[in-house]
Inverse folding.
């Protein structure tokens, strides 16, 4: 091991498959909630609470609030955790998205009444 920090050893070559876009969107997991930092066609980075480990499968929903003027469009994603970063008040999770499904639309009024989007679809 060279002892160089990742920043010092970075060769300047971007290895991501698709470009990431900085966007803050609500994320809902089975037993937690969070916020995205960035999203791409093949992955996402979000912060949340709870124990997560690299290589674990993960299922989560992202709420797209401004795609449809009639309500919130929910995208349910399945993937694999590729990196976990401890943070002062949360944990950062980088996940590869293996599959996704556009779900139901929920009106903003109903979402507010019900406390947010539901990953179960109920």
């Amino acid at each position: 091991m060279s002892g160089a920090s990742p920043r010092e050893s970075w060769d300047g070559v971007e290895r991501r498959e698709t470009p990431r876009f900085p966007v803050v969107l609500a994320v809902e997991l089975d037993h937690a909630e969070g916020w995205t930092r960035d999203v791409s066609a093949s992955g996402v980075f979000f912060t949340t609470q709870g124990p997560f480990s690299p290589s674990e499968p993960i299922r989560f929903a992202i709420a797209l609030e401004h795609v449809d003027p009639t309500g919130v469009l929910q995208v349910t994603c399945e993937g694999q955790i590729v990196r976990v970063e401890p943070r002062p008040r949360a944990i950062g999770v980088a996940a590869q998205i293996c599959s996704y499904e556009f779900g139901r639309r929920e009106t903003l009024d109903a979402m507010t009444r019900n406390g947010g989007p539901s990953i179960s679809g109920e």
Q: What stands out?
A: The longest strand covers residues 71-86. The chain is about 10% helix and 50% strand. The domain at 17-110 is CATH 2.40.10.220 (Thrombin, subunit H).
